[in-house]
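B., you asked whether I could sanity-check this one before it goes into the benchmark set. Here's the sequence:
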Amino acid sequence: MHDVRLVVGLGNPGREYDGTRHNIGFAVVDRLAAQWKCSFKSKARFAAKIAEHDRLWLVKPQTFMNRSGAAVQAVMGWLKLEPAQVLVVVDDADLPLGRMKVLASGGSGGHNGLRSIIESLGGEEAFPRVRIGIGRSAPVGTDIADHVLGKFAPPERTAAEAAVVRGAEAVECCVMRGLAVAMNQFNRKSAEGEMH
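And here's what the prediction gave me:
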């Protein structure tokens, strides 16, 4: 085991948001929970659903995307973790559908969930994240709320499902082999996939 102890998938709670582009972070941690045979339990005091596997915690904040930081901060406090031990899985409209980037740190990139976490951590940006491309339906600078809250169109579903699988593999690599290995393996593979 390397430094990551907490994996946070970002999304919005509620059945109406299942399968939306914004909830791809939830889909990744759901896949990991299924693979690891652990189940999520609602923890009202953290406003989150939490699953435990071998001293590693999976978390789905239940605060809605733009308030994700409150849940993340509460769970971090309970587990006494540093930001570098928290891996966040998040959708990224600036990456083409299925493209992925594993990063050691960075700003919010305009993502409300990441912005909320950074604000809750007092401006701390040094937590790793797996950014999964969902594509963009409108030019940069325009409102894409309908796009991110929409479900993947039928022609996109195969790519979206493959992205969830690769996202889960990237998280496992970060946890078992370390962030540097995951960045080398998955950032390169993602770029190569885009060229073919």
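One thing to flag: Residues 157-177 form the longest helix (21 residues). Otherwise nothing jumped out at me.
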